[in-house]
Design goal:
It is a single chain. Strand 9 (167-172), helix 6 (178-184) and strand 10 (188-191) form a beta-alpha-beta unit. Strands 3, 4, 5, 6, 7, 14 and 15 form a seven-stranded mixed beta sheet that branches. A six-stranded parallel beta sheet has the order 10-9-8-11-12-13, sandwiched between helices. It is α/β, with parallel strands linked by helices and 330 residues long. The chain is built from twelve helices and 15 strands. It is globular, with a radius of gyration of 20 Å. It starts with a strand and ends in a 6-residue tail after the last strand.
Length: 330
């Protein structure tokens, strides 16, 4: 069985190697075994390889926050999936050809899904969905502002907000991505900068914006906060700058702003297994309809993990880098 292993933390393409590992065996009662069809290389996976992610397990370690797989066998007592079903895995260590997991961690998804898209279903779509549902009570016609709008999560926020009748202000570093974001349903697109709040007020007609989503952090957090109404909520879910979010005392004390953070695992932990399956069933249906779609840059065999990691860290890509352990997608 092919598997990616780190023997050290460091430069991802130097520390990740593909090896032949022992077969994982048959599932015990309450377990599911599935063959990994594809996994994406996410920024969090790059951070994991470097050793600067929040999770830093003892070595040797296997990366991989998400994947799509096809069920090979189920143990006694497993009824929600059967052989040949497509599943996503709620656990990590997915950079491998085959996985054996607890049954509740294998979540069924629609059979007709595009396998490339299904490989990216586990993290970004529910992140966008839950940030729009769990942070503040939004209704049709409300505004949300976000930076990193051209990211995978940012694009999903645009798409899912549009479906809910929520309007979006989308902040990016470059103007050349505006047409693509508009085609997805973005209402307003602006480049970031020190006068962002003034330009947002002009573009929205001084609309009151209750929610801001921030994945840049540092001074960008304060720029998003300045665009919100008093007692609005700003949520940081990433830090492209590597800096801590800058929120002023005036925003918190005098304007009554709420500052919070989002991590998918924490918000999913509030839900039962049935509720989690329902979320992915909803997102899977949206993916089937084409409402959820993320661009794919390239697909590599698992043996070429070094080249895949180099490509995943190359600027100017037009989508995710995927790895296919079994060659089912190319």
């Amino acid at each position: 069985m092919k598997k990616i292993v780190l023997d050290a933390y460091g430069v991802p393409e130097d520390v990740a190697r593909c090896l032949d590992a022992p077969d994982i065996g048959a599932p015990s009662a309450g377990e599911v075994v599935f063959d990994v069809i594809a996994f994406p290389i996410n920024p969090a996976d790059i951070g994991f390889c470097r050793g600067n992610y929040r999770i830093r397990p003892p070595l040797p370690a296997t990366p991989g926050a998400e994947c799509v797989g096809r069920v090979a066998a189920v143990g006694d007592g497993v009824t929600h999936v059967k052989p040949d079903d497509l599943v996503i895995n709620l656990q990590r260590e997915n950079w491998a050809a085959r996985r054996r997991v607890k049954a509740e961690d294998a979540v069924p998804i629609p059979a007709g899904l595009d396998l490339r898209q299904a490989a990216m279903l586990r993290i970004n779509p529910p992140t966008a969905l839950l940030m729009l549902s769990d942070l503040v009570p939004l209704k049709r016609g409300d505004w949300v502002i976000q930076n990193v709008a051209n990211s995978a999560v940012g694009r999903l926020v645009i798409t899912l907000a549009k479906a809910k009748g929520i309007r979006t202000v989308n902040v990016t570093r470059r103007e050349d991505v505006f047409p693509e974001l508009k085609a997805l349903g973005a209402d307003i697109c602006l480049t970031d900068g020190p006068d962002l709040a003034d330009r947002v007020r002009e573009a929205t007609g001084a609309a009151e914006i209750p929610l801001g989503l921030d994945a840049v952090s540092g001074a960008a957090t304060a720029r998003i906060a300045a665009c919100l109404r008093d007692e609005g909520t700003i949520c940081t879910y990433g830090s492209m700058t590597g800096e801590a979010p800058a929120v002023s005392v005036a925003d918190v004390v005098f304007r009554g702003m709420t500052f919070t953070g989002f991590m998918l695992g924490r918000f999913m932990a509030r839900r039962s297994a049935e509720e989690i399956r329902a979320i992915y069933a909803e997102l899977g249906d949206e993916m089937l309809k084409g409402a959820i779609h993320a661009p794919v840059d390239s697909v590599y065999p698992i043996e070429d993990i070094r080249e895949a990691l180099i490509r995943a860290q190359t600027g100017g890509r037009q989508g995710k880098v995927l790895v296919s352990p079994g060659g089912e997608i190319g």
